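2024-03-11 09:14:02 INFO receiving multi-entity request
2024-03-11 09:14:02 INFO entity count = two
2024-03-11 09:14:03 INFO echoing inputs for audit
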Amino acid sequence: MGLVESGKLPKPLTSLLNTSRKYSIWIFQWGLACCAIEMGAALGSPRYDVMRLGVIPLPASPRQADLVCFSGTVTDKMVPSIRRLYDQMPDPKYVISMGSCANCGGPYWDSYSVTKGVDQIVPVDVYVPGCPPRPEALLEGIVLLQERIGKEDMAERWRGEPIVVS
Amino acid sequence: MAAITDRQRLAYANAQAADGRVNLEFETDEGMTLNMGPQHPATHGTLRIVVKLDGEQVLSCEPVMGYMHRGYEKLTEVRTYPQVTTLINRIDWLGSFANEVPFILAAERLMEIEAPPRAQWIRTALFELSRIANISLFVGDMALHIGAMTAAFYAFRDREFVLNQIEAATGGRFHPNFDRIGGLKDDLPKGWIADTKAAMERIRDFCDEMEILVEGNEIFEARTRGIGVIPAEVAMQFGLTGANLRASGVDWDLRRDEPVGLAWNEVDWNVITHPDGDSFARFWVRLQEIRESTRIVDQLLDGLPAGPYMAKVPRIIKVPEGEAWVATENPLGEMGYYVVSQGGLGPFRVKIRTASFNNVSVVPWVCRGVYVPDVITILASLYFILGDIDR
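2024-03-11 09:21:47 INFO inference complete, emitting structure
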């Protein structure tokens, strides 16, 4: 247990650490369904250009990522892989759940093969609603997450409530 | 008889080697097993592929599906007809509007309603717009898989112009849900036709750009020419449809052969085929199809008939007893709905035939004996969408 995790870091150092963390997020794109294309548009297209926010969308594996974006329908068959890859990510790690399917099942709320929300498997920091959300909505989710990281007290990390983009 | 040049001899030897690779039967159990997916950038989402390797050569390649199975066919049984279109939009999520059309046509056939001409023409135009939005992403995506990242950025940039037009007309960027039994939800907004023509102009520029940027690239040609050859007979045996079949030299397009209740027959366009059947042919055919689609859209908008956009339908839609099968040529291939109605508010049973399921079934055949990087090329060029495979 280091200084950071125990919450004994002096205030200026904490804010310096948080500022540098929030502008160097490596986001792992977990594209599952339709939202994957909108995520691709948000992260990979010149019109939305996520890199201006200090987010790098190209980690080679979840082991190098700080943030994972689950975009799309989570099926029961997919659940073990999601949990496993989430466990492989280094702490501190953040999760964005993009789209109605990943939030709560969406239009497949009564389907036999769909998991009703990725938050049953992993803790979620930001829910981005929409079916699919526009790329701007995902960008706003990322900005809200950055605000949260900026204000973060490492010791209280897990006690916070998830952010909802309205 | 003219002497055979060295160049011809080399081409012949290469063709023989490629033939031998494809036809070779591998029966050994040795080798390394490589698991690609279920989350892999080269598999368009959540397809998992188990590849058995001998060194760099693929002994067998098996796609594992079901990671995106959402139970559409079961869900349609508990939805009413207007609700079903919301669901089936999301089967092939890149060409959403094209998914609605065959289902609506099947329901209209059961109810013996015909949409007014204006609705049919707008439907066809939106159908082609969603084809452009779908395939322009393929162009960038395939180049990305081969290692050319720039093309993907261009594709995302120019695709936005088409999405803007779809959004302006329907209100939805991705999932329009615009089709109604008997017509359309709304008429076209003011100024839409001129804007769409400007967008089509941009898309044609995009095609030119991609031809220079990607097709003329030596590395791209080396990685796609002669890779993943699917002969016409094999393509037909596996039930391939769409551009994959046309790239094998089969002149088959449901838009021309069976234009059920849509306006493709009214305009002038060509079916694009290519005799080679390799990855390059599949890329080339799709790129040319974008061009043809822009032509179709332009002509449709020029000759758009006036009149109502909605036929007279009862407020509560009840479909009489019966069965109907309607298939159309979607961006990925033939997509058909077999709707069984028992007179209720919703369908009794819907069988959905999607193109990607058959297109992927050829992967084990075509991947035998190729090298690992070629598997990526072949998967990219076959172009499937996971929602379309698993439903």
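2024-03-11 09:21:48 INFO post-check: The CA atoms of residues 68 and 386 of chain B lie 6 Å apart.
2024-03-11 09:21:48 INFO post-check: The first helix of chain B runs from residue 6 to 23.
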